[in-house]
Amino acid sequence: MTTSGSVAFFPSTYGPSQPEQIAVGPDGALWYAEGGSFIEPEHPSAGTTFRGLVRITNASAPTPFPLKARGVRPFDLTAGPGGALWFTAAGPVDQIGRLTTAGAYTLFDARVPRNHTIGSIVNGPDGNLWYTVGGGRVGRITRRGLVTIFRTPSRAIAPGDLAVGSDGNLWMTATRAIVKIVPPRGRCVVPQLVGLRFAKAKRRLHRANCTVGAVAAPRRAHRSRLVVQHQYPRRGARLPAESAVDVMLRR
Questions:
Q1: What is the DSSP letter of 169?
Q2: pTM for this one?
Q3: Which residue from 23, 43, 190, 199 lies 20 to 30 Å from 83 (Cα-Cα)?
Q4: Strands of the 129-134 sheet, one edge to the other
Q5: What phi and psi values does residue 214 have, to the nearest 5 degrees?
Q6: Please, which pLDDT band fits residue 40 given cuts at 50, 70 and 90?
Q7: pLDDT at 13
Q8: What is the CATH number of domain 19-181?
Q9: Using CA of residue 164, residue 166, residue 172, residue 173, what is the dihedral sign?
Q10: What are phi and psi of 211, to 5 degrees?
Q11: 179 - beta bridge partners?
Q12: Where exactly are the structural domains of the chain?
């Protein structure tokens, strides 16, 4: 639609269509997420469903980039670092996707908490990607796919929308509120944790400006008395501040 009110339509040619969010890509073209349509049980022969990202310009026909992962439905997208598109995708396991303009997909587990749904995504002011997951939570993913989930004061169930403000912070919509999120500053240099009791490992992570991520531990055991057997990422990794470090504990 032009500023004078002239409207032109570009119909999809990929069967049942449900375009979602749209963004300007790193190549200057428009890209949008095509979620396909839900096939009604009483009309199973309505057509095939295309799901993926689509590139479109005024001068050329839409170019599809099908997402082959089964059951994954792309929703929001943004131009990210490294000249690629990053997008959120809902499915049996909610994911963050990366698509190069050459058509190469990479998918990462978004670590969405149980009973929550992934939402919008933006290229953050700190050079990482940020996305919403509901429950007042936001996720941060690095270029290499390392995910950290943060809580905010909001407890809104539905994931809100994100934007980067002129103040260099993130702003999120929530139920009856607007939430300002200040990205952590500095670095997390992952310390050596293997061989330490869990209680001491947590203190060492805190001093290194890191946080505890996923913890795998034997059942019916007091975590603080267990010893770290494995850690990820490894010692010496330089990550954004407050990055989550996963550990596996043993007796």
A1: -
A2: 0.90
A3: 190
A4: 121-123, 129-134, 137-141, 147-151
A5: -70, 140
A6: very low
A7: 62
A8: 2.130.10.10
A9: negative
A10: -130, 165
A11: 172
A12: 19-181, 187-250
